[in-house]
Amino acid sequence: MADKKGNVSSSRKHTLKSCMLALAKDWLEAEALEKVKERERYMEENCPPLEMSHSKDDLMELCKKMYDKINVIDEERYNLEYKVIMVCNEVLDLNIKIVDLRGKFKKPALKKVRMSADAMLQALLGSKHKVTMDLRSNLKQVKKDEKKEDKELRDVGDWRKNIDDKAGMDGRKKMFQGDN
């Protein structure tokens, strides 16, 4: 057997599948036999064996009895069909009501709530548990140093003077030579 739970070899799967199919086949055959027996039982109860007499009056009487039975069965069938139609209509009406009710009540859009970590933990764990999370205490302190070059780049001054300095061949030479 495989050491992991849920892993089954293909031959084992095939064996299990064939066993399940054989069992299902047996059940279907037993169910079909049961239906045949039930039908025979019903026929014996409701339809007595036919005794044929050759007189015209007896045959007329037999026809009247059969006609009466057919009328009773048709009436029962009609009543059952009517009940089924009524139930189907009721189900359709209820489905329509459900759809209408779903349309009337729209779910509100959830709003964003600003919450501290302590408030979240208190909401999740309940008021009994007191947990404080100071997340800023673990952060490293960094001092901001301004570089001299950054300051010079920001304080360029008048842009027209800067362009005039770089104009012409002298300005280009100065750019390549650097500030001396």
TrEMBL record:
One of its GO terms (biological process) is skeletal muscle contraction. GO terms for molecular function: actin binding. GO terms for cellular component: troponin complex. Keywords: Actin-binding, Muscle protein. The keyword DNA-binding does not apply. InterPro entries: Troponin, Troponin_I, Troponin_sf. This is Troponin I type 2a (skeletal, fast), tandem duplicate 2.
